């Protein structure tokens, strides 16, 4: 039974799972879009959206919390504060989108997806 289970465990201990989300989030912040499995993309979405909401506050407290949640990756935190968060000033959530891909991963036939920011600096539209 899944009573009171909020997230998938991905068959990893808590520390490994948190490191996975931090690494995925940093890659998404740096590149604007990443390709990963569909369950990981769905689990990453609330994590990254909370980070963007925190970055929109522009306070020292928010900056310190963001650095802590990104495990002191200051380069990604600075990019989130200076480049990404200002694009979403008028938006109240929904900062990312997920596209399901037709192709599946060759080794284990996992469903693949692309997760990206709705707006990203340097994105051609």
TrEMBL record:
Transmembrane segments: none
Alphabetized InterPro entries for the sequence: Ribosomal_bL17 (IPR000456), Ribosomal_bL17_CS (IPR047859), Ribosomal_bL17_sf (IPR036373)
Any Gene Ontology biological process: translation
Gene3D superfamilies: Ribosomal protein L17
PROSITE patterns: RIBOSOMAL_L17
GO CC term (a single one): cytosolic large ribosomal subunit
GO molecular function: structural constituent of ribosome
Subunit structure: Part of the 50S ribosomal subunit. Contacts protein L32.
Family: Belongs to the bacterial ribosomal protein bL17 family.
Name of the featured protein: Large ribosomal subunit protein bL17
Source organism phylogeny: Bacteria, Pseudomonadati, Aquificota, Aquificia, Aquificales
This protein's encoding gene: rplQ
